[in-house]
């Protein structure tokens, strides 16, 4: 299955020890012919043989062979598994096929991380019902916010299926992903026809491959389809003809794609059509689609990324951060059972530091899913190293105070808090057709990490990093620790040399790489820092835009008060003078200078640390990453100097340490 | 010849009076069959009939008819004409065919401006040998910095020839243009093949149409042609194979295009290849091409727009303004006779206010041509009204002090100062395939005006504006004065609401419409304002970059001293505190606030004035311009508010008049 055209990422198994045994496989309760089971056994065979050198002989009984027993246990919960090594083999129990494939990959992971095959042991149920990847792939082959080549799903308006498709599905299954949206949420051109005869056959083929690895295929939907492909003159969700059209369309979709998962919808957002066009609510739109897809067991995932993207920068009352809550909170409870709201982690748009969206847990009677971005749109374009798992962990661990106990975001989106059957985590993925899938080889840690975390939100950032390093590079302990530390500190490093203390955005408009302090300051996007000669920050307190009041009381109080507000977010919530004294005993302006000099220094350290790994990392991967660290260093210097110069020129307050500011 | 698909611009003659006479035509000395003469007579007939209602009967003698006598007079200088009305007709004398066609259009212009046919009288020799338009048209049909539709020369990599081509040639002849470069100076893709068999036939056809109106066709050249189309591995201008290749190529070009004018070359500029790549001088490159084209009478126009476009913004020593002089002055005298240096009016790039390039007149032994931009790249995209003739006049009237007397730019580029045979004026034209050719109907005043001014640099901005209004709209005196004043003040209005006092650039990067005060501040383009909390401006004095020292002593002294420097340029030459007192008794910062409030107010006035013309301007034209004034008003407000807010936020100094600043 290995191809020479692309890497096998974390599935390129390293020999861990030379085993002396042979294995046979025994399956009870499951159908060996089921494609998921068959694929799981294939993966077991491939993995064991590569990791231990031992041979898997098949399913006939052989004397003195170890037995890999796959056994159905219907008392286990959905998609969960239990693995246990013993002197005569390994037992894998699961209630369903997905549990089996996840169990197999758990066995291989444990061996790759240092256990002997007969020592493996774990029992896991997935933390989230939905563990989803969102591809922003366009049918012309381009990828919106893609930094690792073109799409491997689409080319010239056709669907591409090859070995890479299967490898992709294997990778996703190995980290617990069970849902994939194959096309960009901005559905345009040919992508509107994905739900027509023009593409059904190919989508079916793709869906079947996914299905073999326990993954449901989803698509992004064009809300204006009744007009664009249906020939109607409206897409009003309460219009009878529109509803009838959608009913027919869903019937057609499921006739061709019986295992189809459902649709992701970006409506009324950044120029996309939606229910607001017809004076309808977001619930009207989502529920109509939910109702028509319900007979087939499909679901509708409705994005909450709705805001006024033609704001006047002069207007300090309107606050983009408020928009999600303002648009969706009132309709809490109005959404039907098979509708899930997909909510970005922060109220803005994937900045390096944002508070957690107050919608998460703010909604108390609505299925909700957390959306994060693995694609490094605002976090370094897979040039700069930015291990994002710590960011996701912060979000998951955030106490919303929506109730006593079970009030973290992890609780809320898992369904634990309110007993929802639907919920989970979705990520905008960072893959492309680059040889190494993710441009920067180290960016694959985010791909891997998101999957693992969505499956098990209790895992720490370090555990995930160590797993990924072991699987990918199998380094000695010292180098593992070095690389692990590089990953773990990289998000803070990136934060230090970019925009300070939660204010975000000081990025080059459009491209979103490199600094432009005022780039979004006088724009229509609702993204302002409001810096003048005295201070900086957005007043989102009860005296400002009132955004802080969208949180439950404990958090609202905390954010409302500069003394209580976590300082890494202080400029998100408060407009403060440059002379404001932080808890570190530094003034705000000195913090800006210091953190930018530090951040750039840390980028230099990262770059130097990478060189220490030259002898243990495969040459091609080493060079790819080496080149990127050089670029990261340029970027860090540019950020440091532009941000420092900007604030020095504006405030006139010199750096206490007299370092060079231009 | 009138087409319904596009306007006839200033050649859409209005009936001026009802004449009672008939005309016959008598030609002596010239060949009536010559296409220029034939076209001239056709234009005379068309014009006279439309303007006076009188009939032109032809060349047979008719009793009692007036006679239009076209007579060769070899004592007149090249391209000049003399026209004189008398009781029995009009006499047109010229030494060559171009003089005839210019004389005909002079007759028609005088009648359109109010004279009776028999009263016309004028004797003119063109001020400049070369009066040239530069099209930045690409062969895919797009136009670099085009704001009035796509190219009418190119479409889908083919040359388009239709009635519009002829109309274009008529327009150009009517304003005295005798040279046109048809393709973009950035020669890429198919345009590199314009000098191959693939296009010769069509270029010849185009060239013939131009020739019929006294216009020579020129093309922009790809300096890397020996590599790109010749298959060589170098384009080193001193390489023998390269020279031989060019010799062959020129032979081929002139075999197909016997009347071809020559080439315009942008080399070593903004990523274009050039002699510097091979360690050669600009003169090496230009002279090599000059030598190989010389046998055919062709000329090489070499652009001086060479500078370091990857500057570090931190570097305050390097000064883009210096680059032209630094690169070209030392080689003064080294350029061959058939090479002309084309020099932009200012040292930067077509900003609303720049000092005159010190190369103009700074070069004392080199053919030189002034380049201006009619296309409103930095001056409002043909949305905002910006009559540019006053800007061109300022440049032409500038005393370079290169010698005693005859030291203005007009003197220098005409050839008067140093006795050059080659020289003149070139403009980046503002036309496209829009119905009205120039997007904004009023922008045609710049197209018209440039031609007229390049032919007669003594004309005033007001004379040109009145001519254009008379020819285009034929308004009553009151409305003529109103529109004339709108045009005459519009450049200053645009200047007031955009970047102050010669500093330039505070424009949205790439697009160049709308404000972005820091948009170019931290970029690689060498375009900085250096504003901090205390002041703004670039020190280009002897204590700064030394740019002011590139001028002759009188000007160098003037620019070097803030007290002597013209205040409209003071920030181009000096870094000054916001509290610096201007001669108006206002501080610098107050000037910034006042001028921006004034500029926006003037934009409102322009818009209101246009409404007063509703009844006298044709409805379609009125509406087109009306829409643009609405957009201009938005733009002016955005500039006013962003610039004022930027400087208030940075300086902390309030507006004395307490107006709203955000």
What is the average of the pLDDT values of chain A? 97
Number of H/I helices of chain A: 17
Instruction: Give the oligomeric state of the chains in this entry, treating copies of one chain as homo and distinct chains as hetero.
Output: homodimer
Name the shape of chain A in a single word.
Answer: globular
Strand tally of chain A: 18
Estimate what percentage of residues of chain A fall within beta strands.
5-15%
- The radius of gyration computed from the alpha-carbon positions of chain A, rounded to a whole number of angstroms, is 25 Å
CA distance, first residue to last residue of chain A: 55 Å
> Biggest interface pair, residues each?
A-B, 23 and 23 residues
Q: Spans of chain A with pLDDT under 50 lasting ≥5 residues?
A: none
Briefly note the structural class of the backbone of chain A.
alpha/beta
Structural overview:
2 copies of one chain form a homodimer. With 662 residues, chain A is of the alpha/beta class. Chain A is built from 17 helices and 18 strands. Chain A has helices at 35-52, 97-112, 163-174, 197-211, 225-228, 240-256, 282-293, 323-328, 389-397, 409-414, 444-455, 461-472, 477-497, 553-560, 570-573, 588-612, 619-651, and strands at 22-28, 55-58, 66-72, 81-86, 89-94, 121-124, 130-134, 154-155, 158-159, 179-181, 216-221, 262-265, 299-303, 339-344, 368-373, 424-428, 535-536, 576-577. In chain A, the strands form 4 sheets. Chain A has an 8-stranded parallel beta barrel with strand order 7-10-11-12-13-14-15-16. In chain A, strand 8 (154-155) and strand 9 form a beta hairpin. The first copy, chain A, starts with 21 loop residues before the first strand and ends in an 11-residue tail after the last helix. The model of chain A has no long low-confidence stretch (mean pLDDT 97). The A-B interface holds A 313-314, 515-519, 522, 531-534, 638, 641-642, 645-646, 648-652, 662 and B 313-314, 515-519, 522, 531-534, 638, 641-642, 645-646, 648-652, 662.
